[in-house]
Amino acid sequence: MALTNREIADLFERVSDMLEIRGDIIHRVLSYRRAAETIRELPRDLRAIAAEGTLTELPNIGKTLAEKIEEMLTTGELEFYNRLAQEIPPSLVDIMHINGVGPKKAALFWKELDITSVEQLKAAAEAGKLRDLPRMGEKSEKQVLAGIEALSRRTGRTPLGVALPAAQEILDRLLNLPQAIEGAIAGSIRRGRPTIGDVDILIASDEAAPIMDTFVTMPNVARILGHGPTKSSVELQNGLQVDVRVLEKARWGTALNYFTGSQAHNIRMRELMLAKGYSLNEHALRPLDADGNMIEDEAQHVRCATEEEVYAAVDLPYIPPELREDSGEIEAAQQGKLPNLIVLGDLQSDLHMHTTWSDGHLSIREMAEAAQRRGRKYIVITDHSHYSTIANGLSVERLLEQQQEVRQVDAQMGPDFRVFHGVEMDIRSDGTLDLPDEVLAQLDFVIASLHFGLNQERSVITRRLLNAIENPHVDLIGHPRGQLIEKRAPADLDMDVIFEAAKKHGTALEINANPARLDLEAQYARRAVELGISLSINTDAHAEDQMDLLAFGVLTARRGWVEAASVINTWPVERFLDWTRSRGR
Ligand code: DGT
Ligand code: CA
Ligand code: CA
Ligand code: ZN
Questions:
Q1: Which of 17, 118, 326, 538 is the most buried (most CB within 10 A)?
Q2: Ligand 1 in contact with 261 (CB < 6 A)?
Q3: What's domain 253-334's architecture?
Q4: Is the CB–ligand 1 distance for residue 188 below 6 Å?
């Protein structure tokens, strides 16, 4: 079978990893890795681009890599990879991706102990055989086991940040067809889950065939999994599976409600309907006769054009999709106690972002203008502190020098847009804070974050975070749990202790909006709000386009039942300043 973009990207990625294990120069390793990234993000089939002869016009694809792509497209194989695989066992790649291992240790385990699989590595670690290797030790051995444990928790789901834009693009394409009356993304994306199993799209139309045809012939389709009269499924080149269903506008409400889910919410809805004398499915509310049997006569079926009608049929107000997890939303709706969820427009500010002073791509002025273009009223510049050497973190001298530039830009931007000076200070691995109190006292706003030593055991890492929360100069904890969606498990924090301290010291907790993080996650955000802790939704932007990620933070907050009142970024600038002053600034 023909290789898809994803399979070709995966092969390049493997080659890159194997070269890195072999110890090749980093330039060569990266050339394959960048090519893989380019291919993964391509909106079109590589085959079509190869047919046009324009492969080398793609970013990161030179003549050699273009030839290798051609080879894979024609033969389904890559000779170079096959030869490499004779020399470096490909399964070492899985070992190198264990959190805390990497290419050098993978090579070490292989050369010293002949370990070529994760299972063998696990057995060796459990038998205590890793600790005596050079640059290892008992602690590193434990970390390897923790990394293997984390690996088994990965789900193979697609991050929301990848799935949502892909789904939106397909929806827009289908809505462009004259036959399409209305359309929506349903399923877990509409509910804002951080990871997605597959994409569900609904289109209202009286003429399904052209919509189905357009869908299955999109240029980024790798495989057609099903092509029916009103339902089709495809696998995209990036590996994502997408279902599209076409239905009549008259039953839009029942269909959208059903396919938004969650399944648990749907089950509750069906029970409520039964109590009202209806059987509910994706098509209609079908009345039951006196014996409880469904009446087949379609004329008596109730079709709902809107979701509001579906909920009204069981005497409920509309329940926002982000709440539909059967986690109390039905009861809250029955009691008239649904939260008034935060919306993107409530946010006045972004309190966490980076510039060229550390590892960002734009100047302070450029970040300010980018934020202003997006309707924000004030921002805080929060570059890294010096412990983050890989992120070019600021020394005390550079931080104070930066303050002058922030003040200048603040003046240049005029009174309607304010630029404040803060920092994203590291909480060092030994638990100390990276900047002295007298420096923190000179800043407008202080974020403290864990970036290193995230594998420490619970009591140690919890204590580290407490050191920051308890410091009166720390206003906000950045991405508190340290997770990377589908890549790194959260730190083993005692969240009850963390929440208690945040409450006591008035320290806010972040919902980091970057879809690679979404940290705090919804369930923790919900708990924090219940306890009266303030939250802050921020992009942590390192470039202009990342400022648009705020919407993912809002989705996560909504899943956590968060109202505007709990989020400090919703405050007008005067109130924000009052708050920081009340904290001793
Ligand atoms: P995913 O795709 O794993 O991220 O999660 P969903 O929620 O998008 O699940 P999916 O794609 O299997 O189905 C979309 C919605 O359709 C789901 O949220 C609820 C509804 N649904 C699907 N299968 C069932 C079912 O067997 N029973 C009920 N009550 N609803 C279902
Ligand atoms: Ca789905
Ligand atoms: Ca589905
Ligand atoms: Zn940051």
A1: 538
A2: yes
A3: 2-Layer Sandwich (3.30)
A4: yes
Q: Convert the pLDDT of each residue in 324-352 to its tens digit.
A: 999 999 999 999 999 999 999 999 999 99
Shortest-distance atom of ligand 1 to CA 188: 8
261 CA distance to ligand 1 middle (Å): 6
Q: Tell me the average pLDDT across 228-236.
A: 94
**Closest ligand by atom to 233 CA:** 3
Instruction: Give one DSSP letter per residue of 152-210, joined into a string.
Output: HH---PEEHHHHHHHHHHHHHHHHTSTT--EEEE-HHHHTT-SEES-EEEEEE-S--HH
Q: In ligand 1, which atom is closest to the CA atom of 157?
A: 4
The CATH topology of domain 344-582 is: TIM Barrel (3.20.20)
pTM (two decimals): 0.83
Nearest CA to ligand 1 atom 15: 259
Q: Ligand 1 pocket, 259 CB below 6 A?
A: yes
Question: Which of the following CATH numbers is that of domain 5-153: 1.10.150.110, 2.60.120.10, 3.30.70.330, 3.40.50.300?
Answer: 1.10.150.110
The rounded distance, in Å, linking the Cα atoms of 464 and 426 is: 11
Helix and strand totals (H; E) in the chain: 24, 16
